[in-house]
Amino acid sequence: MTSTGIGAPVRRKEDQRFITGQGRYTDDLARPGQAHAAFVRSPYAHARIKSIDTSAAAAMPGVVAILTGDDLAADKIGGLICGWMIHSKDGTPMKAGPHPALAQGKVRYVGDQVAVVVAETLAQARDAAEAVEVDYEPLPAVVDTAKARGAGAVVHDEAPDNVVYEWHLGEKGATEAAFARAKHVTTLDITNNRLVPNPIETRAAIGEYDAGTGGYTLYTTSQNPHLARLVLSAFIGIAPEHQLRVIAPDVGGGFGSKIFIYAEETVCVWAAKKVGRPVKWTSDRTEAFLADAHGRDHVTRAQMAVDENGKIIGLRVHTVANLGAYLSTFSSSVPTYLYAPLLSGQYDIPAIYAEVDGVYTNTAPVDAYRGAGRPEATYVVERLVEVTARQLGMDPAKFRKKNYIKRFPHQTPVIMNYDIGDYAASLEKAMEIADVKGFGKRKRESAKRGKLRGMGYSSYIEACGIAPSQAVGSLGAGIGLWESAEVRVNPTGSIEVLTGSHSHGQGHETTFAQLVADRLGVPIETVNIVHGDTDKVQFGMGTYGSRSGAVGMSAISKAIDKVIAKGKKVAAYALEASEGDIEFEGGRFKVAGTDRSLAFGEVSLQAYIAHKFTGQDLEPGLKEGAFYDPTNFTFPAGVHICEVEIDPDTGVTRIDRFTAVDDFGVVINPMIVEGQVHGGIAQGVGQALMEGAIYDESGQLVTASYMDYQMPRAGDLPSFQVGMTSTPCPSNPLGIKGCGEAGAIAAPPAVMNAITDALGHEDIAMPATPRAVWHAVRRAAPAIAAE
Amino acid sequence: MAIVSMTVNGKAVTADIDPRTLLVQFLREHLRLTGTHVGCDTSQCGACVVHMNGAAVKACTTLALQADGAAVTTIEGLADGADLHPMQAAFREHHGLQCGYCTPGMIMTAVDMVNRLGGDLSEETIRAELEGNICRCTGYHNIVRAVETGAKAMAGGEPVRQAAE
Known about the structure:
heterodimer, A: 787 residues, alpha+beta, Aldehyde Oxidoreductase, domain 3, Aldehyde Oxidoreductase, domain 4, 7-stranded mixed sheet, 19 helices, 28 strands, B: alpha+beta, Ubiquitin-like (UB roll), DNA polymerase, domain 1, 5-stranded mixed sheet, 5 helices, 33% helix, globular
């Protein structure tokens, strides 16, 4: 391992600009002549729009234009789309209502866009937006996931009972048979609380139109600019794909919420041509709460069947998933194909059956948030496993170990073929780091101080490296999920890598450069990673689903292979040797068995001056591209152990220690990978202890600021104990599995298993706020475990 | 409109502004110092922290007019030319940032923390003192390490060790 190669904790190349205030986020950009947009949003969860009177607002200072849904319709601008078709178990396609970028006829959640005001200054736009008079006829609203089906309020006429789909996966008959012969059945009612992703940079967009060329530019906070361009072109119909440039510059966190193609950026691009000026919008924080896609929001009944030997023989779930008022870009796939295929967890379970009902409600759209479906599945499985062990009187670690999958590859009953893993290795290492042996003593010490101590495990698995295009296509995806790369070697030997992945905190500018430096033997300083601009970078699929390492870097690796192959040809001419005799090693092209060699930079110069060969023998230049389509998902897995201490007088839960041992396969930069684990755990702890998006009965979001929606602060968390095990992934050339979502997936059940261990009963739901814990401490354990 | 004058990163500035202009808007839009960010509008997240007359303030809830006559330092004014401030170097060395958006506010808060409390800071103190700064990426683990190191370097004048890039 070199100091900058694969496996080295290289300090990040991108940090210089961020620590000196020179980062360039969308809102930092000011385009010449730009005007500012403010959206008029619905104050009602559900209402008919009787009329919109813009006359008073239009007369206000600085107002350039006020546009409504009627203007969109007149310009034949299409609605926002959902890109994953789910079929119900009866074979019928999901029932999706239209999703106009500005409301047409009806509003369906608080925050729904009704009109946009474009003005000279932001203050003027906001003032005028306040003066737009919308006459609403309020309608009954439904907000509760469990009560959505058949509610009095019908969100979309296309789904008269508010049910978008009734989907299923697995074998019903085999599962019922397993339950019929079970010695023990565990039943849990589980709520997976609704979350708001909350990257600290809110969404922003600048739309621009060049009347001379007819081209549009959109600067936006996107995790996948090419996908945004494709949707805005092919489906929404704003501009032909080749006439629309999408630039996602520095992006301040995404966590899934910046995957989607939203109304606001659509409107900014469209409005730019209408007003003949760049149009800029930046979300304020409350708008972000109202209009960013939320995450999770499942209500589930889950059951686990166990035989007389303590072996899990069946699992079944019925989940109702809240999809919000409109189907966001990937919303339909999250509680279906990103959820149920993970219900086998790390366990050898012969029969699994999952039913999922997706429902409309008068709430913000719900879509992927860090982990997306996999945290929900892991929460179900790991709560069931822990409670089953408790009910059987077995040690939860031993019960897990007994039921772990031990031979690979392993075909689960729910689609996934796990390629490799060693779950017991992670468990043992985590137990050692967490000092599980000393827990009893610590618990007694806590008890002496009047405190309740508990410990909880989470043996999670996730499917990452999303995803083989053929596989996802067969499951209803409208797109393929390969990745692209181009490696451009300059005459001087410096290198630009153009990647379809997008970095919004992951550190690609460093890790991707490490790969190139390692493989080509060049200094890391001479490698530049280019991403986030559709005019520079070939079509690519973007960053989500922990895919940038496993898929994005594999594409780069493939392109590097081609660069080396071409370099050998060039070197053969330059060294007057046979191509077959050229070896590439340590950054030099060598003639085997001789001392004749050329440095990488000498070969790149030869490739461009092309003096030693004719263009007929060999094309000049050294630039190669690749598209890499994975052959399987990757399966990062690990064990997290949480230990809590509860103050029964206040209900405050303190995380005393949190241990994570993860198997991510090959790790490019352990410093960055550990950072991803830390951040994921923090979000998972947030879900377990404090976060929750709360709508009141009328559909008002009462947690719409940082004063109302609690996220972890430094004082809420301990330092984490992070360890690694490694079984390299066999399905991609680098052996990478992906690490971005693990913490958020693993942590919630670890925390809740610890809290319920401390409480001595299962009767508490996330978020386990001090109030909830205080009440739970005072409740006796109910006869049937419920949460 | 109203006239406001202040010193920003050592330079005197005067402007005629809408009286409701926030300090952060003044810095970002009038002076184009975009390193100071807005994250929450409600003084919770601290992405907007700058120093006003040597003390940390949240620029998203300070009117520019409140800074009239003041000396303001932003993240852009922290480094000494090409030499990073020790706290900046410590954030880089300890991977105390991911997306970078909260980072300027974190660093300005950390520097203020050391100015007030000295360079020997316990983990508990650092975590408590970061109450007004939210990071959604790092889980704070490495931020705490960075502040510990940066604080020692500020107090002792020791440069933060630079690893290979």
